[in-house]
Amino acid sequence: MMLPMKCSFIWLTLYLALCVILPVHSQPRRRVAKPAATTYECKPEDFLRDKYCVFRNVEYNGRNAIAFKAPSSKVQQVAFVDSNLKHIPMELLTAFPEMRALYAVNCSLTTVIIPKKLERLHASKNSINKVIVLQDPATTTMIELVLDSNRLQDISNITRPLKKLEVLNLSDNKQLTKEKAIELGWFARLKNLRQLLLANVGVYYIDNARASSLPELQLLDLSNNDLITSNLDVGVFAPLHKLESLRLAHNQLTNLDALELTQNNKLKEIYLEGNDFTCDFQALLVKHLVESGIEYPVEHKNVECMQGYWKRDNMCCRSGFLDRISL
């Protein structure tokens, strides 16, 4: 009597497996829908005294889906304001194939791309440690690169391909000078360079081992560094025949060979405030500059001098009293 019941149970189990369970497992898996991309649209605005298409409040961490909408594929100037971008999305380059200028200041960037056709990039106050250049030396279009206040350590991939640069701002990149030295030869390939800004990069030495001329350089900013007299041979500036403005303010200089500096008849101004000149030497220095027709602009005329320093010619200088104490 038990055998038929056992057989019936077995057949029932097989029936359930074949007719119910198996079809469920054999059904195709449903695809998980990808999250829809967040689309941002820029609006034409008067920005930086020019016409830009401005994006606001863009959030991109490098992983979230994102899309950009342009009023026209011919838009050439793009700006990001109040935005956070880990890097420049490729979707942006696709949406703006004719982009010539990009403004992305204080956007939390760690990497930045210089695409083909770009001419101007302003990316100050980020955390950029890598620059990806999609231009080659033969066809480069970049003329202005502003990357101050970042974390750059190597600029060879900038100076090699971007040969047409006219303005290069690398100030406040304190990791740039591992050896605490700047070699002007780093920039020798930039034959069109007119402005080179290297303020506050923690440099102790300026070298020009190959007497690189930088034939078009007019402004060199070395202010707010740690230059001392023994480490600054003004002869490094002699090959810079078109140099008009030399900024040496806020270093630790106690002396300066003004006679050699003023042999450059193109030189128009030297910034000197914030150094450690004695008042007697500073007076002689200022007198020589005035007689040579060279200005000494002072940006902080109202600053209070430290104890033991006097105000002369709108600049603080070390009083002779301190020298007598040191003796």
UniProtKB/TrEMBL annotation:
Q: Which SMART domains match?
A: LRR_TYP
Give one Pfam hit by family name: LRR_8
Q: Which domain of life is it from?
A: Eukaryota
| SUPFAM superfamilies from the UniProt entry | L domain-like
Gene3D superfamilies found in the cross-reference section:
Ribonuclease Inhibitor
Mind telling me which InterPro entries this protein's record contains? Leu-rich_rpt, Leu-rich_rpt_typical-subtyp, LRR_dom_sf
Q: What is this protein called?
A: Uncharacterized protein
